């Protein structure tokens, strides 16, 4: 089986890491994967430059996130050429721009070529102004005509899209994210008496890094010198966040390869996004037997069970700070162990790859 994945860009973050894990695990099932992708913004890092992927790679120089009719036309033509050259049995598109160009290009080359689109989260809520949300909704309704199946990473994401009448006639699948879990990973112990918090992501509005700063601010007020925070990542809001946190125990590392290993010991992960499909970082933290304290948004509740393998927080940063402050070291350890068990029970790369394989195979056989 040959599968072509098309994604707008492989910037360091959830979708790029997801494709790395998926294509690697599907290789073990005899699937040959190819990834066609564009270029990153100036404040982003390209995941393919720091990681060796098992898939074949095609870089499309004209494909990028911003709207540019000339570049988009060039990208469409290039994608068609790649489809003809690779001759895949199936095309799987990811992210908004690539989802439009890739699906149209695939069906223009061969109407019978099976096409899957993966919704990695909410393209609707939290990412765009209201008028853009209406436009994207209409576009997605139209693109259903060029899509054989849709995958969402959580049931919550699927339900929200279907409420907007997106892909009502499509074959839908909920396939949760998964990561490799072959190695039992332990982080080095620390002699510090402080509870160490970690935040990993893009410094952009939807990830709301300012919320994390406010959490630490409240923690300093109610339990001075008991907590500190390391923030890993980069983005357009980084300098503003640094300025706002100048007097707080917060360290910034920039982007790191293997951020969980290279950010040293941590006790809890913070997920402060205004909206989130699920959050791959939740799984990565769980692989180190560490729990996540997250805002109760999007589909994060499909992994985190409150007070069992993490904390789900409704409300503002003060609520999250109070929730964290109420945890003792024993409870933190217990939550982390439960998070790892949840990961091993249903959120591994092998489970994810097998679910995709079953879907792909059914679509290919249907079109044969």
Sequence of strands across the biggest β-sheet:
3-2-1-4-5-6-7
Low-confidence stretches: none
The largest sheet, given as strand count, sense and whether it forms a barrel, is: 7 strands, parallel
Number of strands: 13
Query: Structural class, from secondary structure content?
Result: alpha/beta
Number of helices: 13
CATH class descriptor name of the largest domain: Alpha Beta
Number of domains: 2
CATH fold call of the largest domain = Rossmann fold
Mean pLDDT: 91
CATH hierarchy: architecture of the largest domain: 3-Layer(aba) Sandwich
Assign the CATH superfamily of the largest domain. Answer: Glycogen Phosphorylase B
Global geometry: globular
Order of helices and strands, N to C?
EHEHEHEHEHEHEEHEHEHEHEEHHH
Ends distance: 13 Å
Helix content: 40-55%
Instruction: Indicate the radius of gyration in whole angstroms.
Output: 21 Å
Strand fraction equals 15-25%
């Amino acid at each position: 089986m040959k599968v072509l994945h098309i994604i707008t860009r492989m910037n360091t973050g959830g979708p790029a890491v997801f494709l790395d894990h998926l294509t690697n695990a599907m290789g073990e099932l005899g699937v040959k994967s190819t990834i066609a992708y564009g270029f990153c913004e100036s404040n982003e890092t390209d995941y393919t430059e720091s990681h060796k992927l098992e898939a074949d790679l095609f870089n499309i120089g004209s494909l990028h996130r911003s709207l540019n009719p000339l570049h988009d036309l060039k990208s469409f033509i290039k994608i068609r050429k790649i489809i003809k050259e690779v001759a895949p049995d199936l095309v799987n598109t990811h992210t908004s721009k690539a989802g439009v160009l890739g699906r149209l290009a695939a069906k223009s080359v061969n109407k019978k070529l099976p096409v899957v689109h993966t919704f990695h989260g909410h393209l609707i809520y939290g990412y765009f102004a209201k008028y853009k949300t209406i436009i994207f909704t209409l576009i997605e309704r139209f693109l259903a005509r060029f899509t054989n199946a849709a995958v969402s990473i959580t049931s919550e994401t699927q339900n929200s899209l279907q409420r907007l009448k997106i892909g009502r006639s499509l074959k839908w699948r909920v396939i949760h994210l998964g990561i490799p879990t072959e190695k039992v990973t332990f982080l080095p112990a620390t002699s510090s008496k402080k509870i160490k918090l970690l935040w990993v992501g893009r410094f952009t509005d939807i990830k709301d890094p300012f919320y994390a700063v406010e959490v630490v601010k409240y923690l300093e007020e109610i339990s001075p010198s008991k907590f500190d925070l390391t923030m890993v990542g980069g983005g357009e809001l980084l300098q503003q966040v640094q300025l706002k946190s100048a007097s707080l125990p917060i360290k910034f590392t920039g982007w790191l390869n293997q951020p969980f290993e290279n950010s040293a010991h941590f006790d809890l992960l913070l997920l402060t996004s205004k909206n989130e499909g699920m959050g791959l970082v939740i799984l990565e933290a769980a692989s180190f037997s560490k729990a996540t304290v997250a805002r109760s948004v999007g589909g994060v509740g499909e992994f985190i069970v409150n007070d069992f393998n993490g904390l789900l927080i409704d409300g503002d940063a003060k609520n999250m700070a109070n929730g964290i402050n109420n945890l003792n070291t024993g409870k933190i350890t217990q939550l982390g162990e439960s998070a790892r068990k949840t990961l091993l029970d249903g959120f591994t790369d092998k489970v994810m790859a097998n679910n995709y394989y079953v879907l792909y195979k059914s679509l290919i056989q249907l079109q044969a």
